[in-house]
Amino acid sequence: MALLLSLAAGFFSGALVVHPYFDGDLFWQRNLGRWVLDHHSLPTALGPEVFSAPGVPWVPQEWALGIAVATALRWHALWLLGVLCGAAASGALALAARRARAAGASALATGAAMLLALMCLYPSLGIRAQVLAWPLFAGLLVALDAGALWWVLGILVLWANLHASAVFGVVVVGLDALAWWRSDLRLEQSATRRRVLGALVAPVTLLLTPLGLRLPLYAWSLVQSPIRHYIIEWQPGYALIVPFALGFAPLCIAALSAIVPRVRQLRGNELRDAVLVVLLAIMSLYALRNLPLFGLAALPLAAVALERAVWPVKPRELVGGCLAGIVLGAAVGAYAGASQAHWSVPFATARALQAVPGEHRLFCADFAYCTAIAGDDANIRTFLDGRADPFPLWVWRDQHAIALPEPNFRAVIARDRINAVVARRESPLAVLLAQGHDWTEIPTTDACCELFVQSSRTASDNPLLVRNSQ
Q1: Is the pTM for the entire model greater than 0.70?
Q2: What is the DSSP letter of 183?
Q3: Which of 245, 369, 409, 443 is the most exposed place for a label (fewest CB within 10 A)?
Q4: What is the largest CA-CA distance in the chain?
């Protein structure tokens, strides 16, 4: 098991050090960190860097990571954040594995369950605030197992200052209290009373951030946001076939096989874990972003189920299991490398656009990288960037109409006065723009995308009506 954890740590950290830009959020997070360091406060609205919705309220929940990213890039030490996030992912697995071992699972059964959980974690891997929150979630479950109230509250405070998903941590504490109360209806045990008290105090931890009440209100707004179906992480878990088939599905089957035969005997921590795993399984079917938490919560139950299903392991078989784990880990690594090989930050595209004179109103089909292309050039303003959540619904509809593209995409481009477009190379949007007479392709060396600028007139000359962004 130690070998497998070492391999996981090396795999996660190595992937992030070699390829830190798994997504484009690092660039707007860098800008957020710069703002906080320069103004010693948090922004409350989108700025003029976006022309579609300047002034729209924004809750910068990832302010702590923004500061870290800005500092790391300033000192050319982004690799340190890659190592930190890799350590966070593997540390979360280690904490979940510890819970499995405490439940009676062998090292071999725990290692097998870890491989399944790893498949749930990998799709969300990156230098991201939610990755840093994974060990906090796993640590919260360890603290709840021990009934360590002060540790529980401390973890929630730290989590709330990293990411709004801390709201779910409060839900977990509430589930724990309910499970213990169900086992001790008269609250006669001090452990039960302590957990109920923790559940009552836990919501207060969400207010112990610079955002105050705005953080839980923001988390609630995401649950009912109309833009969710435009964002990949809010798509159903089965949208990613490989992690779903090799991670979620077998973990779910194993965990349920440990729960169902004993469902009437479950009490306390066991009852909490059973309810939590079922809840997270449903949430993972609802949204991809919940897959990692499901993997960490289901790992101990799955390991126990696997332990019951296998015969006693001999030393020779243990060596074979380790070798099989290495082979499978290598296969996962190969899949990871192949799936990310086509991604690259479009720095050449950025330089090419910055060399074109005039002011640019930039649309990016892959909107997460728009901030990277704009860079620090004040002449480039973007239509939509990786912050995603605060942008109004009409912005997302127009983004979808152009990126798809829909039949009216040229009218949408004109109405929003877009005069520069970055599209995936040889995508339908790129082909249509290349065929038009009003767009000129600017050559770049980036393999990921193509750059087009208006050749006949600029956006400021466009006589078509501009949409009111208010």
Answers
A1: yes
A2: H
A3: 443
A4: 79
